[in-house]
Predict the 3D structure of the following.
Amino acid sequence: MKTKLTLSAAFGLLLTSFTAQSSSITFHDDLDVDSVNGVVVEFQREVDLVAGEQLIEVSYSDLFQDNADDSGHWVKSKPLYLKLDVAGTEKYHLELPELYSADDAKDFLQNPVLSLSIDGQAHDVTLLSQSQLFTLILLNK
């Protein structure tokens, strides 16, 4: 019985240390993560990532109102993709630029450049459209 308890405790410690050292990514409130490596992810602001190449599918949506009488209208994207090479224990955050109007949002969706922070160090990344992703896949065959 003592051996089982010791093995169980060791397994628990191993599991805790593994989850404490995994990578994760958080998203701006106007971005929804749809899938990671083809696995559907719903209603999460933070997603755990395993080491290696990851393909993250996101979509953008925001409601803009031009004035107080305006009921507003939505600006929504088609799926957008981020290819990410995860080393192991980093914390990632994907942040949108400041978008003040529906026109700003539409311009952004024509060239979706975001800020990706890795453990606090930010750099710009461009999300790929579905056709850009397919082209990249076909050219790398």
In short: Helices lie at 2-20, 102-110, 130-139.
